[in-house]
Amino acid sequence: MTKLAGEHLCQLYRENHGLETVSLRYFTVYGPRQRPDMALHRFCHAAASGEPITVFGDGSQRRDFTFVRDIVAATRAAAVTLDVPSRIYNIGGGSQVSIQRTLELLAGIANRPLDVRYERTEAGDVRETSADTARAAAELHYHPAFTFEQGLRAEFEWTLERAREPLPRRVKHAAAAR
User: Fold this and answer.
1) Which H, E and C letters describe the chain, residue by residue?
2) What's the pLDDT tens digit per position in 2-19?
3) pTM for this structure?
């Protein structure tokens, strides 16, 4: 609701004050430096450490995952494209992938079986997401450059690199102070 309200506010400012805006609706963004509470981050962390993965639902839910570098490309295009009308653009990765397929790909990338545990679907969970990016393609020349597997591999490799890094100095000092 807040995102929709923001889009309406932009439209109101355009109509009342002539302020041109562009709104981008990002679909399931993932990649290196992703928020730790997001599913793909948790999946990659668990795959790297051998911890169990919890899936809410049966895994057949489908998402239009969008790699963060494609998000950056779309955002830049929206910022620099001339004569873009005040519009709303869907920015997606170009294909739907099930959670089950995601875990299969991740197991292959991690080169190990995953310990997947299924729980009941959480209330309000969306069954499928899919971005119609035709307007973004036509007007912003946006076309996703990364396949889901390329992006998932990049996120997993980033997770592995982070796992090998020593703890930051401030964390070591905080632990010593306890």
Assistant:
1) CHHHHHHHHHHHHHHHHCCCCCEEEECCEECCCCCCCCHHHHHHHHHHHCCCEEEECCCCCEECCEEHHHHHHHHHHHHHCCCCCCCEEEECCCCCEEHHHHHHHHHHHHCCCCCEEEECCCCCCCCECCCCCHHHHHHHCCCCCCCHHHHHHHHHHHHHHHHHCCCCHHHHHHHHHC
2) 888 988 888 888 889 988
3) 0.84
